[in-house]
Amino acid sequence: MRFLEIVELTAEEVEALRLKNVENLDQEEAAKKMNTSQSTFQRIITSSYEKISKALINGMAIKIRLE
Q1: Contacts of 19 (CB under 8 A, 6+ apart)
Q2: CATH number 1.10.10 is the correct assignment for the domain at 6-65
Q3: Model confidence pLDDT, tens digit, residues 10-66
Q4: Full-model pTM
């Protein structure tokens, strides 16, 4: 039996993706909504893009950690 490897996104990473890609906010606006700095938002969104890319390229499952 083959099990998929899992890439785990945090709730914070999912929220950053939602604000940037669904709500179409720029990074400054999205950072304000998340009560963080623009540079921290940039680190969060970059991390989420890297994880999603890894999962898509390598056929991995994506798990969202809601805590």
Answers
A1: 25, 29, 30, 33, 34
A2: yes
A3: 999 999 999 999 999 999 999 999 999 999 999 999 999 999 999 999 999 999 998
A4: 0.89
Q: What angle do CA 19, 61, 50 make, to 5 degrees?
A: 50
What does the block give as tokens for 27?
A: 């990074």
- Dist CA 60 CA 54 (whole Å): 8
CA 59 to chain centre: 17
- Among candidates 59, 45, 60, which has minimal Cα distance to 8? 60
> Any residues with CB less than 8 A from the CB of 20 and at least 6 apart, and which?
27, 30, 45
Q: Which one-letter amino acid corresponds to residue 43?
A: R
| Bridge-based pairing state of the strands 61-65 and 6-10 | parallel
